[in-house]
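Researcher: Good morning. I'm working through a list of sequences from a screen, and I'd like to move beyond sequence-only analysis. For each chain I'm collecting a predicted structure so we can compare shapes side by side. This is the next one on the list. No need for commentary yet; just the structure.
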Amino acid sequence: MTFREGNRVLVRATGARGTVTGRVAPGIVRVRLDEGMEIRIQESQLVPAASAAPRQRKGTGVWLGFVPEYGVQAWPDYYVVHLLNDTPQALDFRIALVIGGEEDSVWEDRVDAFQTHRLGKLYYDELNEGPAFTLQFWRSTTAGPEASRPIQMKIRPATFFKKKGTLPILEREGHLLEVRVDFGESQEEDLRQYTRQRAMSPRQRRIMEELYSDFETVPDPRDLASFEPEIDLHIEKLTPDHKKMSNAEILRLQLSRMEAFLEKAVRLGIERVFLIHGVGKGRLRDEIATRLIQHPHVVTFRNDYHPRYGMGATEVILKKEND
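Model: Good morning. C-alpha cells for this chain:
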C-alpha cells in the first residue's frame, strides 16, 4: 500500500500512531509519531490508522491547508498545499491552481475519508498575482457517481494571512481555507443538470479509458528519429523575452515545456530522458521533483552526478503509455 504525506498510520510492530510527513525513497516514508519522534520506515510495516480504529465522528468538512516552508528569509519560500477531507466519505476531485487567468497546475485523484492529499506548491510571490483555485468533487451514491457544483476560491492575501491555526488531520500549523462542497440536494433537476450531476469524475473516466483501450498507437518513425531525449529548461533557451517575465511566469513556462516534453516522450515510448535545470538555488529542480513524483508515467528519477551534465540535470525513467 502506498501512503501520502498527511496520512494517519499505525506501526504494525509497536502499535504506535503517527502522520506521514514525506517520502524518502520508493517504499520508504518518514513518519512523525504522536510522541514527537520522527522515523523512517518501510510502507509494508504500516497500516492506515483509520482501518485499525475507525473514527466515530462526523468531521469538520473539507479544507485547503497551506503549510509554510521557510528558507533563509523571514517569510516562507512557498506553501505546501493539502486537500483535507475531514468527512466520513471518500471524494474524487479535480482541483486547478489558476494564476493570471490560466490553469497553472491541475490535480485529479481521490482523497479517502478523514485523510489528506498533498497537491503541490503555492509560492509566496504568487500571492500577489491573484491566485485562485477551481474545485469540483464527486461522491459515490447508489445511483452512481454524483458531482458537486463547481467551486472557485480566490486567494486574497489579507484574508489568507488571518486564517492561521492548526490544520485538521495533519496537526500542523498553517493557513486554512474552508471548501464549501455543495452536491445540490434540490429535487428539481432539468436534464442538463441531471446529466452533469451523474457524470463520471475525471479519475473514473481515466480508469474506464484504460480498461477499454484495446488499441495501441504506433509512433511515427520520423518523430522517433528526430526526438532528442533531453530538454534544456534554462529560460534563455525557451524564450527570447524572458527579461520581461516575473519569476513566477518563468517557472510556469519551464514546467509547461517540461510537461509537454514528457508527454511526447511517453507517446513515443522513450524510456529514459534528461531534464536540464542547472544548479542555482534549486527551486526549479525541487518543483520538477514534485511534478515527477505525481506523474503517472514516471517509474523513477534521480539527480546524481553525470559526466555530461554534472549535478545540473535530472534523469527520468518512464514507462510506456499503455503499460
